[in-house]
TrEMBL record:
This is GNAT family N-acetyltransferase. The keyword tRNA processing does not apply. Keywords: Acyltransferase, Transferase. It holds the Pfam family Acetyltransf_3. PANTHER family: [RIBOSOMAL PROTEIN US5]-ALANINE N-ACETYLTRANSFERASE, GNAT FAMILY, PUTATIVE (AFU_ORTHOLOGUE AFUA_3G00765)-RELATED-RELATED. Residues 12-203 form the N-acetyltransferase domain. Residues 74-101 are annotated as: Disordered. Residues 79-92 have a biased composition (Basic and acidic residues).
Length: 213
């Protein structure tokens, strides 16, 4: 059952991330195509993932395709496809939780850490099979809008490993500025990798907020 819908874009929606979504998260963290680009050295078990739900200064959004956007994506399965079978328990149709009856498929996560600080930090990932279609840019744009609307923060930050050109390009296309580099930050896939830090001011987003549309 999908969580409540928080924001809707042209193609993606953002919903609350629930404990029922943990199998989807586990599959993501276990996939080397995703794990290495985002710098996760190892998979996580259910207990480790459940503990993250107790972090009060972090908000998480489940990125989903629904209805017509899902139908036109070529993907199979719905919101109950949490065991990786490709088939949902309800024929691909989600059970509504907030009055909206649609097919729903989770495709990724955007999280924001430190929402009670002066500068929250964004992190995001999408399943490999949907990358390169513009879904991530739309989802991150929706989250930036949400953060600046809900929280009184002057800026948001984000990081990407130097070799992750896709994530760096996405951040730069949304107006983020490279602010620094943490050299040899983490040992990933046989090498010590640099992490590149980015920032986006509220005023910059307001001036060019159509950049993500």
């Amino acid at each position: 059952m999908p969580g409540a819908r928080i924001e809707s874009g042209d193609r993606v929606t953002l919903r609350t991330l629930e404990r029922e979504d943990i199998p989807f998260l586990q599959r993501g963290f276990a996939n080397p195509e995703l794990r290495y680009p985002i710098g996760n050295q190892r998979h996580k078990n259910r207990t480790e993932l459940e503990s993250q739900f107790e972090e009060e200064d972090r908000v998480r959004f489940l990125v989903c395709l629904e209805g017509d956007a899902l139908a036109g994506s070529g993907l199979e399965g719905g919101a109950d496809d949490r065991e990786g079978t490709g088939e949902s328990k309800d024929g691909g149709r989600a059970t509504p939780t907030d009055g909206d009856v649609t097919d729903v498929r989770p495709i990724g996560v955007v999280s924001v850490a430190g929402v009670d600080w002066h500068r929250p930090e964004l992190a995001f990932w999408l399943a490999p099979e949907v990358q390169g279609r513009g879904y991530a840019k739309e989802a991150v744009s929706l989250v930036i809008d949400y953060i600046f609307r809900v929280y009184e923060t002057p800026a948001v930050g984000a990081g990407a490993y130097a070799y992750n050109e896709a994530s760096r390009g996405l951040l730069e296309s949304l107006g983020f500025t490279e602010e620094g580099r943490l050299r040899k930050f983490r040992f990933i896939d046989g090498e010590h990798r640099d992490s590149v830090e980015y920032g986006l001011l509220r005023s910059e987003w307001a001036e060019g907020s159509d950049v993500g549309n």
